[in-house]
Amino acid sequence: MTHVTTLYQACHWREGRTDVGRRSHSAFRRTCGVVVLVCLAVMTVTACGIAPAAQTTNVSPIKIGVSLSLTGDFAADGQAFQQGYQLWANSVNASGGLLGRKVTLDILDDASSDTKVVTNYQQLITVDHCDLLFGPFSTKLTKPAAVTAQHYGYAFVEGAGGGPSVFTQGLNNVFDVSLPVANNLISFTRLMLSLPPSERPQTAAYATEDDPFTQPQIDLARQLLGQAGIQTVSYTVYSSDTTNFAPIAQKLVNAKADIVVLGTLLEDFKAFTLAFKQQNYNPKAIVGTAGPDQGNDFLNAIGGARSAEGIMVPNGWYPQQTTPGNQAMVRAYLKAYEGDISAISSDVPEAYSVGQVVQQAIAKTKSLDQAKLIAELHKDTFTSVQGPVKFDDTGQNVVIETFMFQWQGGQLVPIYPLSSDPNFKPPEYPRPDWP
Question: Which whole number is the average pLDDT over 8-33?
Fold first, then answer.
């Protein structure tokens, strides 16, 4: 208080020295009064322990970088993943965001290219300065993208890069919330082998892209069915860049196998199905690694629900599940994109689950620190719309269940393993002939 008192006294001393120039002295007095008030205000702020230029809490959005195949071969899946990520972002923002901050999605189109996906993530990290990264669609793109994320020290949580080659690179930053890819068709092989011997298929034909998502599934299914005595009459591996599927489809038709097992995505599954219909080839069972799980995109591609009847696909999710957040996600999807539950691609919950797991991990670490996030993801068990999530040392989810689904009456319904859940239906085997 000493300096203020001295200044106040000095003002009065100067005012009282002489009557000459009273107006100047009066102006000086008013000036001194203002100075004193300012000084008092500063001292009051300081006494209360509040700095004049106090720091504010960071309320800027948390930016999440994603590369997705919005064009190219994986466009249908990439667009469905975008829906899943956006539904999660809407949900988390409605509940206050992450760490009290809203989230925004910074999505770049990789055109289904395994070189473009790398440059996209480099841009998201070094130019856009994203706080978090979510994975792309497909094992093919996840494999190089995870290496890029590791180089910059980022956790890389994804939902569609479950091929074995992703997890043999010696990375500690990659985490797949969905089914391990190689085991996807085990449920199909068990279903076939559960049939009475008189009904069990005797022959099988296989065709697969040389994709790290599709081929491991086909090769394991072929091995298991072969060990049980089901003869392979055709086996074809074709380039993932193939655009003319007619010769491969013709080879499958000519083999006339009891069942057809396909390592496909939507475009090649569509081509094979249309060829089978055109030539009236009616296998007792048709299963694809992906494609039949694409909801309306699939139905429209092959000519409607009647053509889909009896077709199978493996997956870890169905709309009626009571897993945490699932019914809310389904309602949000139908509100945003309309249609009915059969229109929901299984890519949507895969992407949504990525957000859920990251959200839970950040809630535990209370930080965006990447090293802490990686450590937490390796440590705990999480929940998702697809089911429980627990990562092994390589980043694969080792606790989620595998289901087999089949199109029945315009709905994709779970059929195996058998369950008391009323949503499960008895399998249609053999599948009906083409309409």
Answer: 40
The tokens for 414 are 């779970």
Rounded mean pLDDT, 397-404 = 90
Strands 62-68, 132-134: pairing kind: parallel
Beta strands in 239-357 (DSSP E): 259-263, 285-288, 312-315
Say yes or no: 86 and 110 in one domain.
yes
pLDDT tens track for 64-118: 999 999 999 999 999 999 999 999 999 999 999 999 999 999 999 999 999 999 9
Q: Cα–Cα distance between 425 and 415 in angstroms, integer?
A: 5
From 60, 7, 347, select the one nearest 178 (Cα to Cα). Answer: 347
In this structure, is residue 219 part of a structural domain? yes
Residues shown for the chain:
435
Contact in structure between 427 and 419 (CB atoms under 8 Å): no
Please check whether residue 200 is in contact with residue 192, taking contact to mean a CB–CB distance below 8 angstroms. yes
Q: Which residue segment(s) compose the domain that 21 sits in?
A: 2-47
Q: How far apart are CA 175 and CA 155, in angstroms?
A: 8
Which residues, at least 6 apart from 333, have a Cβ–Cβ distance to it below 8 Å? 83, 87, 344, 348
